[in-house]
Amino acid sequence: MNIKVIVKSPMKKARYVYVPDTADSFSGLLGGSAEKARIASDCCILYGRSDGKAELPYNCRICGNDFFGTIVLCGEREGALSGFPLSLRTAKKLFPALKGT
Length: 101
Fold this sequence. Notes:
Layout: E1 2-8, E2 15-20, H1 23-30, E3 34-40, E4 43-48, E5 58-62, E6 65-68, E7 71-77, E8 80-82, H2 88-94
């Protein structure tokens, strides 16, 4: 099943992307294994974990956290990832860093 998420890469504007809700699809978007940061009761940010081999470029700051490399904003229901529950327009109002350059 595909879910609608928001992807934000360094130096780029955020965009909607449809991805299969599998760990492999998120790993592919992030370029490696994913870590999760909760930003609300039903939303989280997935970000790539640096393995120390390469330094990831700075992306943005959301909710007081600095993120490096590509990030994915998605929903979370009962422990499973789901589509992002807000429109891209609303997300950009709440998180101005998503506007990019």
